[in-house]
Amino acid sequence: MEPQHPHAGDPVFDLHVGGKMETVSTVALSGPDELSLAYTPGVARVCEAIADDPTMTQHYTWVPNVVAVVSDGTAVLGLGDIGPAAAMPVMEGKAVLFKQFGGVDAVPICLDTTDVEEIIETVARLAPSFGGINLEDISAPRCFEIEDRLKAMLDIPVFHDDQHGTAVVALAALKNSLRLTGRTAEGTRVVISGAGAAGVAVARILLEAGVEDLAVIDRQGVLNSQRSDLTPVKAALARDTADKFGRSGSLADAMDGADVYIGVSGGSVPEEIVASMAPDAIIFGLANPTPEVHPDLAHKYARVVATGRSDYPNQINNVLAFPGIFRGAFDVHATAITEGMKLAAANALADLVGDDLAEDLVIPSPFDPRVPGAVREAVATAARRDGVARR
Q1: Which end of the chain is more exposed for a tag (fewer CB within 10 A), N or C?
Q2: What is the DSSP string of 211-253?
Q3: Which of 134, 162, 190 is the last residue of a domain?
Q4: Taking CA 11 as the corner, what is the angle to CA 10 and CA 15, rounded to the nearest 5 degrees?
């Protein structure tokens, strides 16, 4: 009789007993004939064919349909730097979501290093075994350099979901929120609280989508070029955002009259600051489990409210994006995931809401069966248009 685990009776721990994943053979191995085809001697012929022409891996291995979900455990959920061992349940969960919502196989890999060079070298050496790399829960600013350099080194998609998955879904929800409130991207004042991985990526995709008046806030206030404490990533973002409209000062300064607040930082925004926003405001408090602006408070002052939680309407959930993005990229053997592919994913998600658009429905449900296919098709089409598709 197996001993009970230490948290027996707790449904969360009960679900995790033995992990959330297993590998399953796609071929029968019920006798010597099948074994001789799947393994020796038959497998040698396939190996020789691949040795002669490495592109044959695309036909005769699982490589083109499998993602490495890679983390160093330094920025896990809202838990922070908990290390690689404690990160594994999240990486397993990510892998299960890839399979469930995108039909993409995934392998969780937690690295026992936080050194940028070691992470890059390790992932690059593992890359021949995978069709794509999903970086996960790696803290800023290291995540920016790791992603950029791996993208330059590898000819397969490299995607940091904490950045770009969040950005895609946030943009989709914002597009519909602007439509609902009669605004245009160009005429909307946006404040993003948080200048880490998600905040930087959300800011970048909003700029790509036409938002012009954008202020990004960190703990010291609005990112602008008058500050001398900015990292290179923050300095570049300051030039492209607050500098254009002369934005500076504190969160309270930026929020006065703002149309949109997007929180990706944690913490709490005082009610008097929320109350200073423009009429028909849009508030996305995406910190989990505690939004920066609690929905009850947000609804007092905002017309559209979204969170990262599943127990409130308008959940900004990355699972709406990353499975379909990789599925679409894999379908056309894309060499990269471009800005155009991300924008296409966001537009596809926004379009699914259609005539059902309402204050409590600006983004589809993660369980809407149309989501993966719509994202997949949009991403594949964009990959061909952007010249990164190999078929």
Answers
A1: N
A2: --EEEEEETTEE--TT-S---HHHHHHHHHTHHHHT--S-HHH
A3: 162
A4: 120
pTM for the full predicted model: 0.92
CATH number at residue 31: 3.40.50.10380
In angstroms, the CA 336 to CA 122 distance is 19
Q: Chain centroid to CA 134: how far?
A: 9
Q: Name the residue type at position 168.
A: V
pLDDT at residue 2 in the model:
57
Tokens of 193: 């609280």
pLDDT band at 290 (very low <50, low <70, confident <90, very high): confident
Among candidate residues 60, 94, 99, 300, the one labeled active-site is 94
Q: Judge residue 9's burial from the number of C-beta atoms within 10 Å of its C-beta, 0-12 exposed, 13-18 middle, 19 or more buried.
A: exposed
Could you tell me if 362 and 178 are in contact, meaning their C-beta atoms sit under 8 angstroms apart? no
Q: Is 233 in the same domain as 347? A: yes
Q: Residue 120 is inside which H or E element, if any? A: helix 116-126
Q: Does 301 participate in catalysis according to the annotation?
A: no
The CB-side HSE value for 245 (13 A sphere, CA atoms) comes to: 20
Q: Among the three residues 162, 192, 223, which one is the final residue of a domain in this structure?
A: 162
Give the chain's domain count. 2
Note whether residue 338 is domain-resident: yes
Q: What is the CA radius of gyration of the chain?
A: 22
Please check whether residues 177 and 151 belong to one and the same domain. no
5 domain residue, yes or no: no
Tell me: the pLDDT tens digits for 226-249?
999 999 999 999 999 999 999 999
Output 10 or 102, whichever has higher pLDDT: 102
312 carries an active-site annotation:
no
Q: What residues make up the domain containing 282?
A: 163-391
- Is 158 part of a structural domain of the chain? yes
Catalytic residue among 39, 60, 244, 300: 39
